[in-house]
Amino acid sequence: MASSISFMSLAVLALALVVSVQSAIGGGIECENLNKDSCAFAVSSSGKRCVLEKQVRRSGEEAYTCRTSEIAADQLKDWVETDSCVEACGLERTALGISSDSLLEPQFTQKLCSPQCFHGCPNIIDLYFNLAAGEGVFLPKLCEARGKDARRGLGEVRSSGYVAPGPEAIHSERFTIAPGPEAIHSRGSPLPRQYLLLTLKKSSSQ
């Protein structure tokens, strides 16, 4: 009898907890209600991605605000990214804005292309797949290129825009950098005014 009462009490408590959580988020995630530790990489109930912005007040105090961007996630809604995926993909909880600039960083792309991230974190991969596509890059090919010749990945893209192939490469690979669309930036913390447009082209074998 006592065990039955105890079980019912736990069930009622669990139900009350679920109801209170749903009430707190209003039945869905709104970017403007998220704090700085949950905003970046989140997706609202409308399917739009959340963007973390930072303002520095006259007193020097930093104030963070979560905003709804115009970038739509692919078939994702009401999503707050897990700590495990943020870490596995080489990201930071307090990342500001949304930019493709990080695709030029070899350490980041190594994490992004890792099995833990690429196959286990669909929200992040969807975001960077679309960012890469906007720059003319097919993300799986980018990861494949790094796997074939890691030393000649994006970290070695020079102002000439050409990366010579490694001795084991079957095809030469050409990376072209050109001005791209203006980056989405956070208020008070502007990102570069232009993206670097990264285009992966394959030439025929010699």
Automatic annotation (TrEMBL):
Secretion signal span: 1-23
UniProt-listed Pfam families: PAR1
Keyword Transport in record: no
InterPro entries xrefs: PAR1
Keyword presence, Signal: yes
Alphabetical UniProt keywords: Signal
PANTHER family: PAR1 PROTEIN (PTHR33649)
Official protein name in the record: PAR1 protein
Organism: Thlaspi arvense (Field penny-cress)
